[in-house]
Amino acid sequence: MPALARKLGLRDVVAPDLLPYLADAAEFAEHECTRLAQVVGGGVCGTAPSVLVQTAALQVAGSRYAFAKGDLVTGSRLGDAARANLLSAHDLCAKEAAARPRDPMADLDRRLGITGGKP
Questions:
Q1: Of these four, 41, 73, 94, 118, which has the most CB atoms within 10 Å of its CB?
Q2: Is 32 helix (H, G, I), strand (E, B) or coil?
Q3: Which residues lie closer than 8 Å to 92 by C-beta, 6 or more apart?
Q4: pLDDT per residue rounded down to tens, the chain (119 residues)
Q5: pTM above the 0.70 mark?
Q6: Residues near 28 by Cβ (< 8 Å), separated by ≥ 6?
């Protein structure tokens, strides 16, 4: 998976007061991609949904930063934009999962709670 889909893709950020928000964004994006893979994507969160999650994470970071600085309008707008990207990532992850070829035996094992050939 490309670095932009695994990391925030930022280089040499020069705003030290923004760095804690970016660290939170990286943690959020990793958690959300893992959650999407488990809950929506059949074990996979593809590159495109991951990029949407990364963008949303940066938007949330910017939103929190703006709120902390007292800029309520920018904070709200970035929060709304993050919501849209998270919904799009969820939808795209679901569409990719539905389009992926299925292994009927693996699906049966998953439904029965069988892992590694043992219940």
A1: 41
A2: helix
A3: 46, 48, 49, 52
A4: 555 545 676 667 777 888 899 999 999 999 999 999 999 999 999 999 999 999 999 999 999 999 999 999 999 999 999 999 999 999 999 999 999 887 777 777 777 877 665 55
A5: yes
A6: 57, 60
